[in-house]
């Protein structure tokens, strides 16, 4: 890119026209245009949801969404950065939420207002099947909710676009938390290890290791590496 | 296929050697070989990229020149512009930062009955934690033990780790897994509840607990939700710009900057917990970084001006497998879990040149040597070079569907650019990833300044000169919990004196007296990528 001839394309940032190099992400195109981002920029790697962007292309009726850090600019994009998305979030104590349908409905009664319009799915920049996990939540199929919503980055677009005013991402988060805490059985190997540590089983060994010579540690490491087994 | 024609010849060679390579391992380096490799090729050993620090507690020490420039710049805060008599928030505990360490300290302190305020530069949760793909290192399996975890960590850190901190890390680690599970984190589990674990580079046992390749995202979603449930007060888009001391020299809070209104906010606190993260967005040596937008070493700068001595600050971790192609993903991390799961590292000819499970420092050095001196890197159309991470091996070894099940996030990200890592390798080059050193603390995360704590990446000493994979995603919780618990007890018997910013004045005056002038102010708060800086620079590779 440094020495090549750069082809410039027109974009619109909140209605104002800029010429930016082809191939940049929306985020870098904004920066190239002179915007010093404060809101609407986070991990720059597609996992935090901060930079969700709404855009249309001039001459096209369709509203698109994307992550500014992941979406490459196209000519005639008309861009809107969202500084913030507002969404309903129920307050609850995770200790007191057994995973049953009535609990979820009680905390999020608007869940039943879903009219199946699919606007949430169409607005998800992660291409998640949002409406399907909302339906699964209504049905009480919580495992399905966990699986379908696991890659949610909490950007809030689904809540912003929902005509029934649901916050699908917060509802799914509640269900995932309750599922992880209550449904999966406890691991005996972890319980065992915790009681060993509490009982002081490793204290002496660790105390001794703290003053062990490096050459001796290296020797032990070599032995451990020889017996390490499979990596997964 | 999104790989340009000029790269496809090399992909053919990788494919041709794959079935033969699959059964092979590359000999591991012994300590002497590793030392030699690091000294010749690791960026930490490039003397011309460091500078002597001329002022402050580390005067005479050498550090990356990008950091030295910030340390030697006057404060962006003009003390006279702040009225310390008008305190905007009075709290028991001020937590600066919004990542895993910050929220953990907040939840723990609040549970102990302390009044907590979180101030963070971007949104709550915006941090390197949320980007962590791999997993949490904890010795929970029967064939593992905290003692083995200790040995691995010391070897990885080249024996420079502070032994007490490592002891604390490995002993508390399994409790962290329990705590997060009880919070509702959906770790990868077998049907009987057993945790799915993998073994990142340098570890001797499987001990990394993951949530697909979204471990940090899942944890941050859950913990931020809990912060809201507990109704903990959070000031977003309000970075701290300087610490406040009192007339006794104790830490007494901080001055924040409201990004939306450009106003200063004075916070008085009986304890201040720095959880500001790392240094990546200073771009040491011009490297790309895997860090989030706000990783500008603010905590190091603020603490240094208050008199804190930094430890191992000249040791930066370069993650061996940052994305080298496509261009728009440059520097983005490819989790070490892919290597744990069988992906080998090979050169332009399709040959292995290093064991895939070497520690990060050694593997990075080997890749830099391969692309530089040995000239066996793959050249991209934008002038970047890299080597292949042979991802198709994962399904070939562990069965069809493994990659998609374990690494859905990575698959999706590359899919957007029409690269299918199940069928095609990924091009990688080291990317700045982690600040190994930082602010030294005791086992309760307290620093040398009374009432000032440091947790997470800003803390130093746990990892020595080189951190092992999965050890940071556990240290933030281990020391976050400790800082929260301990500070909550301590604030009960703490009284704060008269608030002061005298240390800022004194530091600025010292710079003038020594005629040190950088033309900048610090902390940086946000990197400036405007105008032509938005076009990626890969100059450091060409210079090698």
Beta strands of chain B, count: 21
Proportion of strand residues of chain A: 5-15%
Distinct helical segment count of chain A: 10
Beginning-to-end CA distance, first to last residue of chain A: 40 Å
Task: Please state roughly what percent of the residues of chain B sit in beta strands, choosing from under 5%, 5-15%, 15-25%, 25-35%, 35-45% or over 45%.
Answer: 15-25%
Q: What is the assembly state of the chains in this entry? A: heterodimer
Q: Specify the CATH class of the largest domain in chain A.
A: Mainly Alpha
Most extensive interface: pair and counts? A-B, 81 and 98 residues
Average of per-residue pLDDT values of chain B: 95
> CATH H level of the largest domain in chain B: which superfamily?
FAD/NAD(P)-binding domain
CATH superfamily of the largest domain in chain A: Alpha-helical ferredoxin
Principal-axes geometry of chain A comes out as flat
Number of strands of chain A: 5
- Total helical elements of chain B: 16
From the alpha-carbon coordinates, what is the Rg of chain A to the nearest angstrom?
Answer: 25 Å
Mean pLDDT score of chain A = 94
CATH topology of the largest domain in chain A: Fumarate Reductase Iron-sulfur Protein, Chain B, domain 2
Uncertain segments of chain B are 537-544
